[in-house]
Amino acid sequence: MSKFVVLDSHELAGSNFNIEKEILEQQGIECIIAECKSVEEVLEIAKDADGIGLVYVDMNKELIDKLDNCKVIVRYGIGYDSVDVKAATEKGIVVCNLPDYCQPDVATHTMSLLLDLCRKVTLFDRYVRQGNWNSNYGYPINRISSLTLGLVGFGSVARMFVKYMRGFEMNIIAYDPFAPDILFEELNVKRVTLDELYAEADAISIHTPLTPDTKHLINKESLAKMKDGVLIINTARGPIININDLLEALDSGKVKAAGLDVVETEPITDKNNELYKYENLIINPHSAYNSEEASYEQHTKVAISAINVLVKNEIPYNAVNKKQLVK
Predict the structure, then answer these.
(1) Which of 109, 228, 243, 262 could cross-link with 238 by S-S, CB 3.0 to 4.6 Å?
(2) pTM for this structure?
(3) 225: number of Cβ within 10 Å
(4) Known catalytic residue at 286
(5) Catalytic: 248?
(6) Percent residues over pLDDT 70 in the chain
């Protein structure tokens, strides 16, 4: 019997892991739901596993090299920067992510953050709860239809976000060196260079994966290229933004306000954290992906990915190293 281990189920507290457990066991795959909090615990439970599911475990080369039976690693999310894909590929391990399980949810959350920044909903709520009442309090705002929205990355979530925002009549531009022209044309989005986006956008939303090239893409230098009073939204990966440089830009007014679902170091549990001192900064607990529907899809797609590899001996569509493995 094959063995599939979920390494860090505690990172998705409240999730129903019985979904994948039932699906996998119907296919003759033993499913173990673990809460590993150290490398030693990971190795103890996963050293003989045929398949591995993980949320945030750092699946580095050293760890992968010790997984003698592993044939598939499935990340419980869209990003897969926590997995050394090169090392896994060298061992013939299929690495899967879930690129399409929460697109509507992340797109909706991105839209919510942008609308909140434009209308100061959260800022005003904090303000009136302190016994104040002044509709002009805080930074000046503009009608949303007067703004140019710039998207850094034009993948599936960004394109769904565009569809949701169409009714607000914003001018929308995007940068993505990998997306074909036809995607921009279909949605009537102007393709621009990154520097053009920085110069033209009144609001910038981050939709690029975290890679060595995109880490700290938003930094002191790139912020200097942006319009004064720009709005910034990030529902992608925290380290894409250098948080200290962003705070400096908020202090100076270069950035009018920002909405972050993700930050460089998560979680933030200190209520006295420096970020919480900024009233023009919205912080959410990496929650853009979350909905009942997305959660069900998440667990189901993990199971199906494992079954495709372990039972059907197929490389599924969501294998990020499919091209390297199929030669």
Answers:
(1) 262
(2) 0.90
(3) 13
(4) yes
(5) no
(6) 100
